Amino acid sequence: MSAKYYTQFILTDADYRGGNEFSGVVELSQPMDMDRNERDIEAVLARNFDLQQNAVKLVSWSRLH
After folding, report:
1. Which 8-state DSSP code applies to residue 37?
2. Is the pTM of this model over 0.90?
3. How far apart are CA 3 and CA 26, in angstroms?
4. What is the CB neighbour count within 10 angstroms for residue 36?
5. What does the radius of gyration of the chain's CA atoms come to, in whole angstroms?
6. Under 8 Å between Cβ of 16 and 60
7. What domains are there in the chain, each with its CATH number?
8. Which residues of the chain have pLDDT under 50?
């Protein structure tokens, strides 16, 4: 069962220096639990922006119901 999260994040890649804070919804294939962490969301966001995972810093997130 998938789970959607509302996220706020910063892109640290040089192409986004002027406006680097974003928000959006991320859908994970499984809900986050003790075995998963914020890096899963950062990985999805990085793939969507075609960036390395370390170029995304998650500021906040909350699960959508």
Report:
1. -
2. no
3. 8
4. 13
5. 12
6. no
7. 3-63 (3.10.20)
8. none
